[in-house]
Amino acid sequence: MTATALPTGVVPGTYEIDPSHSSAAFTVRHAGISKVRGTVAITSGTIAIGDSIEASTVTAELDARTVTTGDANRDGHLQSADFFTVEKFPTWTFTSTSVSGSSDEFVVTGDLTINGVTKSVELETEFTGAAVDAFGNERAAFEAKTEISRKEFDITWNAALEAGGVLVSDKVKIELDLSAIVKKD
């Protein structure tokens, strides 16, 4: 197997995800007709870029207590035992198990843990650029997306609709925008 070259402008090294310039967003169907969008804070993470795409790894932590959808009542419900049980499981994690693909578009496969349940997911990932910022930090940026089944993470609360169907869809789309800075020794 031939190693895949790194994206142009990315140098091997350990990059720390910059929470203030990164985001994790989700979308779920509501009542089968509209979408509810929300975010959750990425609190920390590391992208270790090896000499090839395949030699790279990713880890990240998110704070479930920061789930925000723009509606305080809904946010409180999402943080309850009906959904995320944030009192017991305040942190979600992702740890990659493999990376494969081309130098600009690749798949990061890894273990996602939500609600104390760990499942393998595939993040379709795109390199969006590298630059030195105004403070002299070497940065690399990536976008990633996946779709999960909330039932697989023991998130099963729902309500039947009078016309048929349920209030909250099982499928949840997740989109990440990551900016990471080369870790300085």
From TrEMBL:
Signal peptide: none annotated. Residues 14-181 form the Lipid/polyisoprenoid-binding YceI-like domain. It comes from the Bacteria. Gene3D superfamilies: Lipid/polyisoprenoid-binding, YceI-like. Coiled coil: none annotated. Belongs to the UPF0312 family. This is UPF0312 protein.
